[in-house]
Design goal:
By secondary structure, the protein is α+β, with helices and mostly antiparallel strands. Helices cover about 40% and strands about 25% of the residues.
């Protein structure tokens, strides 16, 4: 299940030019060469998130029941939904945002498939998510290395 489209800075981008920032640095500030940042919006089939929810549900619930955390947004949202399966849980906007925050890197990996050998853009965050019409939308910050002209 791959992403169906992505826009970066409001412009369509070929999926083959996009990768996720590496696991150790995902969500972190850029280091080294200053990066050019832009907002991205990625659209994928809602089934991608449903599958991730269902794959996570059993272990997450077992851990939450053994070690309850009243401050964990995902745990509290899932409890409120009665530990609903993916198809139902994904319909709840609060749950969806909490789940995407918890599983952001894995969802991007599932949506993008394998990272191209020389991606132009690196997706670094997922800070918003919503579902609409059988699609899930993930939005966040992407970065790319500046061109020689942009380095000035």
């Amino acid at each position: 299940m791959a992403a169906t489209s992505i826009t970066i800075d409001g412009h369509p981008a070929p999926l083959a030019t996009v990768g996720r920032r590496g696991p150790m640095n995902f969500g972190q500030n850029w280091r080294g060469v200053p990066m050019v940042e832009a907002r991205y919006v990625l659209t994928a089939p809602v089934a991608l998130v449903v599958a991730a929810i269902d794959a996570t549900r059993g272990d997450f619930r077992a851990d939450a029941e053994q070690h309850p955390d009243p401050d964990d947004a995902l745990e509290q949202a899932w409890r409120r939904l009665g530990w609903a399966a993916g198809r139902e849980a994904v319909k709840d906007a609060h749950f969806l945002r909490a789940f995407v925050e918890f599983e952001a890197a894995g969802l991007l990996d599932a949506a993008l498939g394998s990272t191209p050998s020389t991606p132009v853009w690196f997706l670094n965050t997922v800070d918003d998510a919503w579902s609409t019409g059988g699609q899930v939308v993930l939005a966040g910050v992407a970065g790319r290395r500046p061109s020689p002209d942009e380095r000035g």
